[in-house]
């Protein structure tokens, strides 16, 4: 497109890098960026100056400059953190190898290096791997008191974090809270909920790792803290009940080993303290099971843990009620527990209770092979071979080989059908 410039007294630099300085009429060829074209029809006056060429780069604001600086700082910080994490991982690998070789001092030193690096960068996410490993190394090295103190400090660190988050959580999730429901408030709620969930998950990882390493007393402290700080969560109930049961059994064994021996005054004091500890654990177990039964009546996993506790305490009717409820709702999941309970009574020669449970199974699933087999054994013990064979046939469901094998096992027939002819 051609534009006509007349009587120009100044120098004009156009995008095509052509300079014009003249008082005469000059024609300049130039291409403008995409924009509305000027009206150069004969009815309009001639343009006395060119349209300004627009800038395609917006001016950088002060806030954008700050954001750019922050981004670069974050990039640098992330790179530094990744470098520290890599170094910590290498030290953690060295700790694993040292434990496998029985070099516990080296393992502890490597774990301490990891903890120092991760704490300096306030990285809690890798700590669940380090604390249990260091505890394990210290315990195997015989430094149980140091291990206990270290784990108490770790638990306090996480507990403080969880307590602070719980305060924020209560502020936003309290039903009587006057917090607004705008987008910012919703985002803050989600963020607090996520932080709480992540922290509880990390604490659960530490507790679970300790539990897998048979450090039940140490694991118990972590599960107990989760239970106390997050009462609405179902997560800690099953492992907490399991830890308490294992601790109680261990204490019972220690007491049994000490009883019947001639003890010194100091050993007698320890035995008395052990008895108090057993009672304390038993009371705590009872309280948690009662709480679980009320809070989570439909949670199968928790209910099974409660039933296990009832059996251990000798409260078999309560366990039977739980198993029956689960089996009625989900026969595939619940019936095996009922059959195992019936078998346990059968082995204890409590035939009446074993038969009662087996018939409960048949009420739920009339062709249950395990239940028919249990009843067949009961009739065999009573000397009623006819009814015993009837239930064996129902258990075999027409399978001749299975019927023969079961009959032979109970002493009702020979192992080879032809031998009975």
Could you give a short description of this structure?
The chain is mainly alpha-helical and 421 residues long. It is built from 15 helices and four strands.
SSE topology:
Layout: E1 2-5, E2 12-13, E3 19-20, E4 26-29, H1 62-100, H2 104-120, H3 127-140, H4 144-173, H5 183-212, H6 216-229, H7 237-258, H8 265-295, H9 300-313, H10 316-329, H11 331-347, H12 351-364, H13 369-382, H14 385-396, H15 400-409
Give a verbal description of the structure.
With 421 residues, this protein is an all-alpha fold. The protein is 69% helix and 3% strand. It has 15 helices and four strands. It has helices at 62-100, 104-120, 127-140, 144-173, 183-212, 216-229, 237-258, 265-295, 300-313, 316-329, 331-347, 351-364, 369-382, 385-396, 400-409, and strands spanning 2-5, 12-13, 19-20, 26-29. The protein has a two-stranded antiparallel sheet with strand order 1-4. Strands 2-3 form a two-stranded antiparallel sheet. A hairpin with a 5-residue loop joins strand 2 and strand 3 (19-20). It is globular, with a radius of gyration of 39 Å. It starts with a strand and ends in a 12-residue tail after the last helix. Residues 1-60 and 414-421 have low confidence and may be disordered.
């Amino acid at each position: 497109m051609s534009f006509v410039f007349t009587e120009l007294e100044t120098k004009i630099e156009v995008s095509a890098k052509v300079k014009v300085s003249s008082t005469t009429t000059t024609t300049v060829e130039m291409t403008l960026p995409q924009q509305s074209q000027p009206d150069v029809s004969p009815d309009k006056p001639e343009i006395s100056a060119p349209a300004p060429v627009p800038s395609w780069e917006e001016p950088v604001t002060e806030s954008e400059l700050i954001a750019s600086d922050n981004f670069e700082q974050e990039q640098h910080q992330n790179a530094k953190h990744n470098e520290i994490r890599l170094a910590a991982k290498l030290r953690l690998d060295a700790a694993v190898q040292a434990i496998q070789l029985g070099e516990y001092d080296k393992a502890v030193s490597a774990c301490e290096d990891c903890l120092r690096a991760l704490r300096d960068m306030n990285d809690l996410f890798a700590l669940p791997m380090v604390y249990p490993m260091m505890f394990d190394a210290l315990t195997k090295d015989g430094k149980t008191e140091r291990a206990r103190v270290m784990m108490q400090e770790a638990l306090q660190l996480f507990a403080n974090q969880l307590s602070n988050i719980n305060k924020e959580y209560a502020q936003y999730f309290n039903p009587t809270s006057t917090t607004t429901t705008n987008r910012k408030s919703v985002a803050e709620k989600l963020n607090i909920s996520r932080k709480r969930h992540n922290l509880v998950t990390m604490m659960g990882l530490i507790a679970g790792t300790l539990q897998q390493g048979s450090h039940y007393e140490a694991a118990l402290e972590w599960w107990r803290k989760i239970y106390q700080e997050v009462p609405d969560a179902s997560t800690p109930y099953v492992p907490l009940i399991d830890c308490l049961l294992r601790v109680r059994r261990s204490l019972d064994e220690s007491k049994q080993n000490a009883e019947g021996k001639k003890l010194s005054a100091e050993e007698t004091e320890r035995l008395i303290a052990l008895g108090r500890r057993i009672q304390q654990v038993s009371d705590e177990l009872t309280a948690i099971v009662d709480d679980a039964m009320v809070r989570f009546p439909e949670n199968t996993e928790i209910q099974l843990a409660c039933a296990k506790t009832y059996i251990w305490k000798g409260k078999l009717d309560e366990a039977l009620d739980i198993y029956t409820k689960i089996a009625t709702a989900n026969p595939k999941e619940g019936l095996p527990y009922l059959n195992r309970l019936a078998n346990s009574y059968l082995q204890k020669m409590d035939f009446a209770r074993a038969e009662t449970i087996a018939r409960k199974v048949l009420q739920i699933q009339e062709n249950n092979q395990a239940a028919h087999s249990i009843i067949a054994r009961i009739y065999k013990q009573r000397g009623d071979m006819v009814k015993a064979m009837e239930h064996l046939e129902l258990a075999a469901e027409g399978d001749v080989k299975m019927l023969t094998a079961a009959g032979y096992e109970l002493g009702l027939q020979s192992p080879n059908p032809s031998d009975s002819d």
